[in-house]
Amino acid sequence: MTSPTGIDPFAPAVRGLDEPHPAHAALRALGPLVRVRAPAGGPAWIVTDDTLAREVLVDPRIVKDPAYAPGHWDPRTAGLEPTAAAQPSLTTTDGPAHERLRRAHAPLFTARRIGSYAGRVTGHARRMLTGLAAEGGPVDLMADFTTRFPLTVVCDLLGVPLDRVDQAVAACRLMHGDGPEDVGRAMAAFADLAAAALEPGRDGLAVELRARVPDLTESQVHYLLFTLIYAGQLTTDPSLGFLIAGLLGPGGRSAGDADEVVRETLRRYSPAPFSLWRFTADEVELAGVRLPARSPVLVDIQGINTDPGRAIGPDLAFGAGPHYCTGAQLARLELAAVVEVLHADLPGARLAVPFADLRRHGVGGIQGSRPVSLPVLF
């Protein structure tokens, strides 16, 4: 039950696009539950087994509320959201409180509802990619497109005026700034974007969500909209990079249909390598190990999804259980739209450098990795 010798699963690293992080295989080799040192200090436990992971993701004794984090953790160092009591959200509430928020969001993100936006989403992808192609010369799609496209889509659907997309892009980049003042500026910008989506006369999912949570304050609704905007960019951005690199790389054009390409990309390059932090609300026994209350627990999504011995079935790219990602249908639609546009409108697109020269950068912690650059010739 110790960390893999010499391997830190939370360390930042730069490696080849198809070069797996060595920690995932090393963790699997140690068993279904592995004790490691958390980035914020003290012990944490990583679940490496698919069956155990699905049990953990539905266990009501293992909660998302940061109020149950170890008392010595610094919330900023640990990357924690406000507690559920301070700021209710889909990613921090549990039990009945989470069920209420889930019921409010769910009708807005059904497969049928999201599918009805396919034309709009594909239109944004076509306009942006053909516009870049018209500029001529190699274009680094990681420099702007992979961030701007998902933000354009989510702003459009929420009802944020599209002339505010630059503000959304800047706010997302500030979230990765060097100090708390950057995050503060970003959160103020996100609140401004949410307020714009809720202005009288606006027509979008933000207005519908507001009507479905009448008991929440305006600032609490703004936070819900922030989570939709920021999460919609944070995970889809790197997935787009890996998807496009795979499509334009060796053998990519002969891949299967768009849905299959999207599924395989999400399995191999999970949007998040680990789940968000969970904590034991009481003493819990997992895989024969007794974890004290307030123990941090992670699910190794990337390691489980790419386990060569894993049985065929649904992967964990978007989680499982009551906290299954609300935006999963939208993310898949965005990725499929890019596949469609590249095949139908830009069949001559190709990588401007060999696939083997592409690199991915992981910032460390529980966050995922992202292609450093993606130069493309149209």
Characterize the structure shown.
By secondary structure, the protein is of the alpha+beta class. It has a single domain, classed as Cytochrome P450 (Cytochrome p450). 44% of the residues lie in helices and 11% in strands. It has helices at 22-29, 50-56, 75-78, 95-105, 111-115, 118-135, 145-158, 165-174, 180-197, 205-212, 218-234, 236-248, 258-268, 301-305, 328-344, and strands spanning 13-16, 33-37, 43-47, 62-63, 139-140, 278-280, 284-286, 289-291, 296-299, 350-351, 359-362, 369-371, 375-377. It has a five-stranded mixed beta sheet. Strands 1-11-12 form a three-stranded antiparallel beta sheet. A three-stranded antiparallel beta sheet has the order 5-13-10, with no helix packed on it. Strand 11 (359-362) and strand 12 form a beta hairpin. Helix 6 packs across helix 15 (328-344), helix 7 crosses helix 12 (236-248) and helix 13 (258-268) crosses helix 15 (328-344). It is globular, with a radius of gyration of 20 Å. The N and C termini lie far apart (50 Å). Residues 68-95 are annotated as: Disordered.
CATH 2nd-level architecture: Orthogonal Bundle
Query: Which series of helices and strands comes N to C?
Result: EHEEHEHHHHEHHHHHHHEEEEHHEEEE
CATH superfamily: Cytochrome P450
Number of helices: 15
Kindly state the percentage of residues in helix.
40-55%
Assign the CATH topology.
Cytochrome p450
Q: In percent, how much strand structure appears in the residues?
A: 5-15%
Give the low-pLDDT segments. none
| Envelope shape | globular
What integer is the average pLDDT? 94
CATH C-level name: Mainly Alpha
Largest sheet: 5 strands, mixed
Strand tally: 13
Structural class: alpha+beta
Distance between the termini: 50 Å
Order of strands, main sheet, comes to 2-3-9-6-4
What is the C-alpha radius of gyration, as a whole number of Å? 20 Å
